[in-house]
Design goal:
- There is one protein chain.
- This protein is an alpha/beta fold.
- It folds into three domains: 9-23 and 141-192 and 266-365, D-Amino Acid Oxidase, subunit A, domain 2 (D-Amino Acid Oxidase, Chain A, domain 2, 2-Layer Sandwich), CATH 3.30.9.10; 41-97 and 200-264 and 370-422, FAD/NAD(P)-binding domain (3-Layer(bba) Sandwich), CATH 3.50.50; 433-464.
- Helix content is 32%, strand content 22%.
- The chain has helices at residues 9-14, 52-64, 98-104, 109-129, 148-162, 173-179, 199-212, 280-286, 335-348, 393-408, 419-422, 433-450, 457-464, and strands at 41-48, 70-73, 89-91, 141-145, 169-172, 187-191, 194-196, 216-218, 225-229, 232-236, 241-249, 266-275, 293-296, 302-306, 312-320, 357-367, 374-378, 383-387.
- The strands form three sheets. Strands 1, 2, 8, 9, 10, 11, 17 and 18 form an eight-stranded mixed sheet that branches. It has an eight-stranded mixed sheet with strand order 5-6-4-13-14-15-12-16.
- A hairpin with a 4-residue loop joins β10 and β11.
- α2 (52-64) runs parallel beside α7, α2 crosses α10 and α4 crosses α10.
- It is globular and about 65 Å long.
C-alpha cells in the first residue's frame, strides 16, 4: 500500500490544537528542579549529562563502590532532552537491533545477544529494587509487515536469528490482526525481549535512586570546558569549577565537549504525536490486549505503542538532519511532518480518526554511522565517553554506562574486550558533503519503500562500505 507522502486536510486539522511538548514531560508529576552548581566542587567521579547515559553511570558507580564520591550535572533538567522525548521502548538489543548486530559483528553476535539479555534483566532488577513507578512492562514487540516483500524480509531475519539459537515467532495476517486489528498488516514477527516504559518517570526514578545512595545531582549546570590541572580534570560551569579524578561524558546529541567526537555523531530529529486516551469502545475494536510495542518494516519506519493511560504514541518515519542544528532548534517543531505522522496513524488505525491528537513533539537522536553505541577515552584515560545509540538508548545506555565505568576504572572485562567496544564507527565526511550524502540517502530510502524494498546503487554502495542504513 505505501504510506501517503502528503497529509490530508483531516490530518492537518487534527494537530491544530495539539500541545507542543512531550507527553512524558508535560504532566504534573515532574519533580522540581534541583539547584545548580554555585561554588567550587570536588569529586572522585563527575558525570556530565542527566539523561539515561549519565543516570545509569552515576547509579552503577555508587553501587559498585559505595565510598566513591559521585557528582552528576545536567545543563537543563533531568530527562529534558532525548531521554524524555522518545517512545519508551526498552529493547534487549545493544546493537540497534539484531540485523545490524549480525551484519557488523557476525562472529560475536551470540555473545552480544547474551549481554543484551543480561542488560535488560539488569534494568528490570533496578526498577524493582528501587521501586521505580514508571509503568514498565515487558510486553514484547510486534515487527509488522505492511507489504508482502516486508514479510519475506521478516522471514529471512527470523531464519538468521535461528542460526544463533534465537527463536522469534512468525504470524500471518490473520494471527497478527487477532492481536492488533489494523487493516494494513499482512504478517509479523514477535520479539519477546522488548519492554515499554514511561521514560521520563524512569529517569526521575533513577535520579532519586542515585541520590539515595549519595550521588550529588545539580541541574541547570552546563559544562563549557574541560581541561587538566595537575592530577585532576577541571570542568568549568557558570556557577563554579568542578575538580574530578575521573569524568564520564554522556551528553549524546548536544554539542560535544570533545572535538574528537563531533566527526562521529550527528543529531537527527525524530517527530512524535500522541492521541488523547482512547475511548473504551475504540480500544476494544483495535484489541491490543497484550500492549505490545509495534514497529513496521519499511526503511522509513514507524514505532508505536499504548501509553499507560491508553493513548497511542506514534513516531518515526522522517529522520531530519540539517547542517548546524542542535537540540532546541526549530527542527523540533514541524507541523507538516507531524501531520504526515497523523495521516499514517489514521491509515493504520482508521478507528481512531475521531480521537483528538493532544501532543506533538520532536527530539534529537544521536546517530553514528554504525547506528549503535561507541566508546572512547581522552586525557590519558581520565575522561571516558559513550554515545551514538541511534534511538535505542533507553535500554542500551545501561550497557554503555557499564562500559564507561569499566574503562574509567581500567578494568579488563568481557565488555571492554568486545570488538564493538574497542572499535569506532566510520566518521562522517565534512560539510557540505555530509548534508548532501544524508539527503541523498533519505531520498533513496523513500524510493526503496515505494519500490518493494529495492535498494538503488547509492544504498548498495553504502552497504558495501559498512554504512548501510535500513531504518
Amino acid at each position: 500500500m505505501g504510506f501517503a507522502q502528503e497529509p490530508g486536510a483531516w490530518a492537518r486539522a487534527a494537530i491544530s490544537g495539539a500541545c507542543h511538548d512531550s507527553v512524558w514531560l508535560a504532566g504534573p508529576e515532574r519533580p522540581p528542579a534541583r539547584a545548580p552548581v554555585e561554588s567550587a566542587v570536588d569529586t572522585d567521579l563527575l558525570v556530565i549529562g542527566g539523561g539515561f547515559s549519565g543516570l545509569w553511570t552515576a547509579l552503577i558507580a555508587k553501587e559498585r563502590e559505595p565510598d566513591r564520591d559521585v557528582v552528576l550535572v545536567e545543563g537543563r533538567r533531568i530527562a529534558s532532552a532525548a531521554t524524555g522525548r522518545n517512545g519508551g521502548f526498552v529493547a534487549a538489543s545493544i546493537t540497534h537491533g539484531a540485523a545490524n548486530g549480525i551484519e557488523r559483528w557476525p562472529h560475536d553476535y551470540g555473545q552480544l545477544h547474551r549481554l543484551g539479555q543480561a542488560n535488560l534483566a539488569g534494568i528490570e532488577t533496578t526498577i524493582d529494587r528501587y521501586r521505580i513507578d514508571c509503568g514498565y512492562v515487558r510486553a514484547g514487540e510486534l515487527d509488522v509487515a505492511c507489504e508482502p516483500y516486508q514479510l519475506t524480509h521478516l522471514a529471512e531475519h527470523v531464519a538468521a536469528l535461528r542460526r544463533y539459537g534465537i527463536e522469534h515467532e512468525m504470524l500471518d495476517a490473520e494471527q497478527t490482526r487477532a492481536l492488533v486489528n489494523a487493516p494494513t498488516y499482512v504478517g509479523s514477527a514477535i520479539d519477546p525481549d522488548v519492554g515499554t516504559v514511561d521514560p521520563a518517570r524512569l529517569a526521575w526514578g533513577l535520579a532519586a535512586a542515585a541520590a539515595s545512595l549519595g550521588v550529588r545531582i545539580f541541574e541547570g549546570t552546563e559544562v563549557t570546558e574541560v581541561h587538566r590541572e595537575g592530577a585532576s580534570l577541571l570542568a568549568h560551569t557558570a556557577g563554579g569549577r568542578i575538580r574530578a579524578r575521573r569524568i564520564a561524558l554522556g551528553t549524546a546529541a548536544h554539542l560535544p565537549l570533545l572535538r574528537r567526537i563531533k566527526h562521529f555523531v550527528i543529531p537527527v530529529f525524530d517527530h512524535v504525536v500522541a492521541t488523547a486516551p482512547l475511548p473504551a469502545d475504540v480500544l476494544a475494536e483495535i484489541g491490543w490486549a497484550g500492549r505490545q510495542g509495534i514497529g513496521d518494516s519499511g526503511n522509513q519506519f514507524h514505532y508505536y505503542r499504548l501509553t499507560p493511560d491508553n493513548r497511542i504514541l506514534w513516531g518515526g518515519y522522517d529522520a531530519v538532519y540539517a547542517r548546524g542544528e542542535r537540540p532546541g532548534s526549530s527542527l523540533e517543531r514541524d507541523d507538516f511532518l507531524s501531520a504526515r505522522l497523523v495521516q499514517h496513524l489514521h491509515d493504520t488505525f482508521p478507528q481512531v480518526r475521531d480521537v483528538p491528537i493532544e501532543y506533538q513533539w520532536a527530539g534529537a537522536i544521536d546517530t553514528c554511522s554504525r547506528f549503535s553505541g561507541f566508546w572512547g577515552k581522552a586525557f590519558a584515560g581520565q575522561l571516558v565517553y559513550g554515545l551514538g545509540y541511534t534511538g535505542l538508548g533507553v535500554g542500551a545506555s545501561r550497557f554503555g554506562a557499564e562500559v564507561m565505568l569499566d574503562l574509567a576504572d581500567g578494568l579488563n572485562t568481557e565488555r571492554t574486550r568486545l570488538r564493538m567496544v574497542s572499535s569506532k564507527p566510520l566518521p562522517f565526511p565534512p560539510e557540505p558533503i555530509k548534508s548532501i550524502g544524508i539527503n541523498i540517502t533519505r531520498a533513496s530510502l523513500a524510493r526503496a519503500d515505494a519500490e518493494d524494498g529495492r535498494r538503488n546503487l547509492w544504498l548498495r554502495t553504502l552497504d558495501r562500505v559498512g554504512l548501510g542504513f535500513d531504518s
